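A.,

Following up on our hallway conversation. Structure tokens first:
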């Protein structure tokens, strides 16, 4: 079974500081999301590994007692390995995919962000990435200038060339998700579209149902 499919909920408190990371994860899981990524950037962690990443990830891992879901940790390879999370997600400025694979072994899911185009995605796939995230598909405040807007046509091309599951990210919402799914993606990653909702559980349910009702 493909564990990288459907709604990919990214747990990031940047735009919803009223919640903790674990609270956001719990709400998404209540809404039926089965793929969760913990995203804590240096501003959340004082620029170091620190105990905060480990303790936060530990709280989310504890939710596996109640929910069946795939848990990915962004950037922090050592934390993912120590907690035996399901996987880790890295980008062009992080540890290379082949080194992550060497460090964590074959059982870990490794995701890679390809924000510059097809070439980096193909390289990541060659060196062992299990899925490749592509975006930003549309303008978004959640991604900086190093993630230029790619658009639907480039996403369609990307999906046709990459053999591993493709995760679309960036500016995806209720009005454009159908067009994104039609490009052939395996999964749609969301941050603000869910975390800024008045009712996160209901919003999560909507996207979970939308993905599977719209998939070919």
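Then the amino acids I'd put at each of the 216 positions:
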């Amino acid at each position: 079974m493909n564990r990288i499919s459907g709604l990919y909920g990214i747990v990031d408190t940047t735009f919803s500081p009223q919640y903790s990371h674990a609270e956001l994860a719990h709400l998404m899981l209540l809404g039926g999301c089965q793929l969760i990524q913990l995203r804590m950037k240096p501003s959340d962690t004082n620029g170091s590994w620190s105990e905060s990443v480990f303790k936060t990830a530990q709280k989310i891992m504890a939710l596996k007692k109640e929910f069946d879901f795939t848990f990915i940790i962004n950037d922090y390879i050592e934390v993912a390995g120590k907690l035996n999370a399901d996987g880790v997600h890295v980008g062009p400025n992080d540890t290379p995919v082949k080194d992550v694979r060497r460090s964590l072994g074959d059982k870990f899911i490794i995701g890679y962000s390809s924000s510059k185009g097809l070439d980096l995605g193909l390289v990541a796939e060659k060196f062992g990435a299990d899925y490749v995230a592509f975006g930003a598909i549309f303008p978004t405040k959640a991604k900086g200038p190093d993630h230029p807007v790619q658009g639907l046509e480039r996403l369609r091309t990307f999906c046709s060339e990459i053999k591993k599951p493709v995760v679309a990210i960036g500016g995806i919402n209720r009005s454009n998700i159908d067009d994104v799914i039609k490009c052939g993606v395996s999964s749609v990653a969301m941050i603000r579209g869910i975390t800024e909702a008045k009712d996160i559980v209901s919003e999560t349910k909507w996207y979970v149902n939308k993905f599977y009702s719209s998939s070919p």
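The chain has one domain: 6-214. Curious whether your intuition agrees with the design.

B.
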